[in-house]
Queue: 2 jobs
Job 1
Amino acid sequence: MSNAITETLTAGDRSRTLSARFAANRLALFSLAVIVLLLLLAAVGPDLWPLSATDQDYDAINAWPTPAHPLGADNLGRDTLARLLRGLRVSLLVAVYVETLNIVLGATLGLLAGYFGGWLDQLLSRLADMLFAFPGLLLAILVAGVFGPAITQTFGGIGRLLLVAGALSLVSWPLMARTVRSITLALREREFIEAARAVGARDRTILWRHLLPNVMGMVIVSATLDVAGVVVNEAVLSLLGLGVQPPAPSIGGMIVQSIPYLETNWLQALFPSLALMVMVLTFSFAGDGLRDAFDPKSE
């Protein structure tokens, strides 16, 4: 009983220490607050804002900011703020979906391969090597370009969105798997794992109760840092016309659609570019803060 209480208190002290380290990084803390704000805007903003992201106002084509359109309107008279909120939702949905797949697939396979080794480790290593042989974004472009039209015709916009996310996840989960595998290889020889084996703990118990909690910190850090790259890659796919298709908005699509009208209204390129920059920077700074909190030696 006393051992259980001691372990609980130790876990609580560790949690408070991590929180204190993260809170000491003002830039990371501010970035986390901005991320929460972006998530709220993406979740409820499109539903609360009264204007549609696809309806056209022919009296506001390429309009500068006005009370009716606070961020102006694009070349078709569509409200920029409504499209920006909807595009923000698309980008963050893709990021969340990709990182969920990375954690579920990459972390699980990396944990199993690192602990059991043998043929599973060899299979994962060869599969990762094969995927790493392709430039990541190029492979995502290939998948989206080949399967995109059929998926869009069958499942519509949501199918296209899931395809883009799946293509990006295809090129990013092997890195997560390798990270978790390398940590697991080091941990499986530690004394607490040997002690668990000595008392007859099953492999499943060792994996989920002893190894997983010790790798989750690095998994969260890697996923947070990877979000910035996912957001940029989604924007690139949209810039190339392989992402979410018009009239549905996306951050990358808004940027490319505004380029021919820079001389008429350059704000239409500025606002989505700023949104993309804010997402990339905040997730990068928050990821750095988490890395420093979990590993003070990295400071």
Job 2
Amino acid sequence: MRRVEHVMGFPVSLRIDDEGLDGATDVGGAAADLGAAADEVFAWLRAVDARFSPFRADSEVSRLDRGQVRADEVSADLAEVLALCEEYRVATGGAFDARLPGRGLDPCAVVKGWSVQRAAELLTAAGVRRFCLNAGGDVVAAGGPWRVGIRHPEQADRVCAVLEITDGAVATSGRYERGDHIVDGRTGRPARGLLSVTVVAAGLTEADATATAAFAMGAEGVAWAAGRAGCEVFAVDAGRRVLRTAGVPLAP
């Protein structure tokens, strides 16, 4: 089964290669169960967008930023997201910051990976064994091997590497889609030093936030990301050099 929807400002594609869910007894029932599992994934992502988007005036994030919700009144999910934002802010010495000077609260760099990882866990809980969930180029996969391309940071029609993922996540941060949208919180200026950075980890929460944080840090971010437990890194720096850790799962 394959489905694509536009959610949270980017295309989200889901591919399920199972014939049916664990325990399914007939073809029609299995197909219906797969459809229900996919429905749950996209319903969750739409709900996340409504609750956490800083671009929606009625979202919980926007209401918190305006002081209409106190910090001790936020939902458990938002409290978790804000705690992750603070964790990465501290770990990067302020390069990663959801509260940049002159801007409103924007936790999107954590929300995307966190929410898509949760969506993948919904699939697993429903009994889906083999799937690939791609959210704007960031991927959670299970039951592989799956081949995941890393886009060339300067040539849109090329990849600079192909990874082989069995169970895990891949996230890439760069300038090629949205320009200078990642800011170094220490300087308030667009991040420099890297053209792109890709992180492979067990889950997309870690992979996506680490990739964004490393890009915000610039050249020093590669070593920082490589030092995080369970993370493998493939980066292209401003001098067009490829930097990667030994455990990057390059496809044969």
